[in-house]
Design brief:
Layout lengths: L2 H9 L23 H19 L3 E5 L3 H11 L3 E6 L8 H7 L3 H18 L3 E3 L13 H9 L7 E3 H8 L15 E6 L7 H8 L6 E6 L11 H16 L1
Parallel strand pairs: 1-2, 2-5, 5-6
Antiparallel strand pairs: 3-4
Helix pairs in contact: 1-9, 2-3, 4-5, 5-7
Length: about 240
């Protein structure tokens, strides 16, 4: 699924790891799964590869993975850089309102999940009920494939997970983040999360940062010329900071 950027970076000489996280892909995990589980898993993965060969570690996050990469960096040591396609702070009402499946869900998502998780926290519901998954890509055929895939956009997740994702614990506010530089490689034709939503958090960051707009690319940036520009920007960023 991430071959659009993983293969170009591998061809450029970088080792690329694309781990599944609990609930998605093929990972099996026992016990309750919340968004904090993702953060701790990401931090453990980074720690493992740092201890394995001592190579510089960069984190890359598509979509919700952008904020996840940020939080993993806050939990880790010696991260050389972050690359994100967007970085969405779910504490912001504008983010939830504009990324929800519909305007009513944008208003009701937090109180609805707060009530539901008390009585039915382990019940799994389709992620597409919450987020505007139909805008995950600009190619209709690709959207249909992803929405049917129970290991990606068609996944069902526990209400506890959704609640925790909508109420994240950000341990380091952006004004105090100096861990590493950040590259925001934002799709220029993103029909799900406009760049102004990312900028609510990104503009507050205290670290070195740069923005690249991927012309013609949607939320899942597979279109040219945006895809090629993302590859070039990523390679330049990695080489500059490794």
């Amino acid at each position: 699924m991430l071959s659009c950027i993983a293969l170009p970076l591998a061809r450029a000489g970088f080792e690329v790891i694309c781990p599944d996280l609990p609930l998605y892909g093929c990972t099996r995990y026992t016990g309750d799964i919340t968004y904090d589980t993702w953060v701790s898993c990401g931090a453990e993965i980074a720690k493992y590869y740092q201890g394995k060969d001592g190579l510089p570690i960069f984190l890359f996050g598509f979509s919700a993975g952008g904020m996840l990469a940020y939080q993993v960096a806050c939990e880790s040591r010696n991260i050389r850089g972050l690359i994100v396609s967007c970085i969405l702070d779910q504490r912001e009402k504008a983010v939830i309102r504009n990324s929800a499946n519909n305007p009513l869900m944008g208003i009701m998502a937090k109180p609805l999940m707060a009530a539901a998780q008390i009585f039915a926290g382990r019940v799994r519901v389709p992620m597409k009920w919450i987020g505007n998954m139909n805008a995950i890509a600009n190619h209709k055929e690709l959207v249909e494939i992803l929405m049917k895939d129970a290991k990606s956009a068609g996944v069902r997740v526990p209400i506890n997970f959704i609640y925790s994702m909508l109420n994240p614990e950000i341990k380091t506010e952006p004004e105090h983040f100096t861990v590493c530089p950040i590259l925001l490689a934002h799709p220029g034709d993103d029909r799900w999360t406009d760049i102004k939503l990312s900028n609510l958090f990104y503009n507050r960051l205290a670290c070195e940062k740069q923005t690249v707009i991927l012309e013609g690319a949607g939320h899942f940036p597979i279109e040219e010329p945006g895809l090629k520009r993302m590859e070039k920007a990523c390679v330049r960023f990695l080489e500059e900071h490794r």
